Structure formats: structure tokens, C-alpha cells
Amino acid sequence: MTDQNNHVLETRGLTKEFRGFTAVDDVNLQVQRHTIHALIGPNGAGKTTVFNLLTKVLTPTRGSVLFNGRDITSAKPADIARMGMVRSFQISAVFPHMTARENVRVALQRELGTTFHFWRSDRTLKVLNERADALLDMVGLARFSDATVADLPYGRKRALEIATTLALEPELMLLDEPTQGMGREDVERITQLILQVSKNRTILMVEHNLGVVATLCDRITVLQRGAILTEGDYETVSNDPRVKEAYMGRAA
Fold it and tell me: What is the pTM of this model?
């Protein structure tokens, strides 16, 4: 049995009911430190609801969530982010008419506790430019630093969202459908980017693209009708007849 101290995230009996409908049913999830862990399953399996429970968008009906052994079930979303658990695309590049650098700089202000202090002089904020440019370079956007976000191709916007998440220096990144709606070239680029940024941190991701899951993930949890169907590495879950029936046969 895996040492519990090696679990960065754990849920115990996590359950969410909506007027008699059980969307998440007694989920006991254990995410091991410094791994890439995927939640997969057919539409309606409860993946996004689990993410919403983890990041306090929703309150569980029953059960608990632990981060580094600390019960965070009742914690506020901002407190959880400060602890080091950040959901990408939740705090993402939400300023389409600002440049890529400016978006990352806003995220860096969050880390410094000066969020949205737009009245600060541009000269003061320029001290953040070096770190912002380093993050943009990390995600392959160095040449787009002065580009307006609205003008960026879709795949580049998703890379920028990862940069804004990295600005908060998360210990655990939650990625919600990071390759959704992308063409093959962008999927490959984002897959390699996730692999790169996973060094020295943990990633929990919801992802429909099984090629991405097979390439990236150390462990996979398969959900069906809100409950855990099975868990294991890709070879184990992909060869499970129940998974093939519930999910694999429907995958593109």
C-alpha cells in the first residue's frame, strides 16, 4: 500500500447529490506526489463535478478533501490556491485585450498579494516583466509576449493559460480538458508542455484524448455514473472489459 504521506491529494467518500441525482458517488481518490494522474470516463461520468468539488466551486453533500494531509473541505477557493492547488483555466488569461506579458504579470501580482492594482505605476510593475518573460519562454510564447491575447491562435491561448497558472507556483495543477478543441499540432505541443511543467509538481487532469492520456499519465482513474470504475496505468485500464464497454468504444 502506498504511503499516505506521498499523497498530495486525497478524497474520502466524496459525494455530490443534486435533488436526488447522485453526480459523484463515494469517490475515494488518491493522487500520488510528482505524478500525472488522469480522470477519464464517458460524458456524464462526473469528472468535471469532481474538479468542481476539489476547487470549491461546489460543496460536497458528504465526504472530505485532503491536500497534503490537511482537510480542506471547508476551505475557500483563494485559500486553496495559496496552499498550492490551482486549477488551470479557472484563473486563466481572462483579459483578451491585454498582451500575453500583461496577463502573466497580473497572475504574478496575485502571488505577490497586489492583485489588480492597476493604479500602480507601469514602472513599478515592470519589475515583474523578467519573471513574466521567463514563464512565457517556458511555454513557448517568448515571441508572442507583446501580442494581444485576442489575436493569439487557440492553442497559444491555452499555453498562456498554463503560464498564468505557473505564475502562482502551484504544487498541484488541475488541468480541465487541456487539449479540448485542438488540432493535432496543438495537441502535440500542449502534451509536451504538460510533460515539461510536470517536473517537480503533481498534475491531475480531466482529458478525453486517450492518446494524450496514454502518453502522459502515470495513473488513471476511470469514472462511470459518478463512481470509480477502476484505476491503474494505461495498459491496465485500457484492457479492462468494463472500461472498453463504458468508455473506450466511444472514444474518437
Answer: 0.88
Task: Give the separation between CA 146 and CA 133, rounded to whole angstroms.
Answer: 10
For residue range 158-201, list pLDDT tens digits in order: 899 999 999 989 999 999 999 888 888 999 999 999 999 998 89
CATH label of the domain that carries residue 48? 3.40.50.300
Kindly list the distances between the CA atom of residue 240 and the CA atoms of 38, 158, 207, 230, in Å, as whole numbers in the listed order.
Answer: 16, 32, 19, 8
Write out the residue range of the structural domain in which residue 144 sits: 94-167
Asked if 135 contacts 163 with a C-beta cutoff of 8 angstroms, the reply is yes
* Chain position carrying cell 498562456: 160
Give the H/E segment covering residue 82: helix 77-83
For 99-120, what is each residue's pLDDT tens digit? 999 999 888 887 655 555 555 5
For residue 188, the cross-strand partners are none
Same domain, 197 and 242: yes
Which amino acid, residue 198? S
